[in-house]
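U., I forgot to send this yesterday:
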Amino acid sequence: MANIPLFKSKLDKSDFKAIVESLKTGWLTHGKDNLLFEKNFARYIGTKYAISMNSCTSALECALKIIKKKGEVIIPSWTWVSTANAVINTGNIPVFADVDLNSRNITSLEIKKKINKKTVAVIVVHYSGLPCEMEEIVKTTKKHKIELIEDSAETLGATCNSKQVGSFGTGCFSFFPTKNITTTEGGMLTTNNKKYYSEIKKLIAHGINKDPKKYFWHRVADLPGHNFRLPNHLAALGNSQLKKLNKFNLERRFIASKYNNFFSKLGTFFEVQKIPKNLTHSYQMYSVLVKKNRNSLLYYLKKNGVDASVHFDPPLHKQKYLKKYSQKLKNTEQLSKEILTLPIYPDLSQKNLSFILRKINDWCKINSL
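Result:
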């Protein structure tokens, strides 16, 4: 039986060398490799500043904390729980919005439906590697004078109108092993706002102000911060991975094209994402809608050694601790019943991809599709 994982990080000798060389310096906490990683990451995204930290969730919390005022934060229900956790853990109230069925993304229209006097921010989530239509969303947030935060955890290297995600608002990225590049655990925040940059640098390091001191031993805390720092050797790994990001994403897009071509021949029973010409997809995940018997296909693939899954079921507004914020979200609820996530990563071999497609085809024959 096959053993094909859903995700797999691609690591090579250059990554191991980067970690070892960093460890050999003896500097094991936040250090020079962080500064280099941040510099190169900001250049890639096209922002003035980038701040490395221990997770995307930490980045989301920092992005919300610098707003200073509390209130309602509009988020899609179609996302991982960390987005809602960041809202609640910063003293704000999540307001769930529906998403578009094709893109699985929040839209400016759905955002407008939820805006009121209590709204302080919107967190857009670029689902699975496909960016939201950002130009209209930017117009909406500017008109209503609310903060725009991009949960770009799944979308590193994707663009909207040739502009990188994470450069429209405050960008928050993840380097968890399932993502397009990895630092094992880790995240990054991007911004063009110098004030935000200075504040967040203090937030992630216990609130300590590192400006010139009266005495070299002084550690003056300006605010109640956190320990959200990314270790130096993990930043070295991130910098090594970043150099290969474009190649990784090309490999992901090639695999996605094979999936798309396969499903296009199976008729209307399967529905793939249609990618607008102004967007590029980084395919952190590959998802397809199965219009009938989705769960049966999941069990069949699992039985045959293919680690398919669902992202996300249940959606946030159906989660136990979030039900008090719940409401009817038609598209989100339909997606949770029909969506299927299939293996995609740079090292997915043609042999294993062919096996996955063959098993899906076998299931279709068994079910007379």
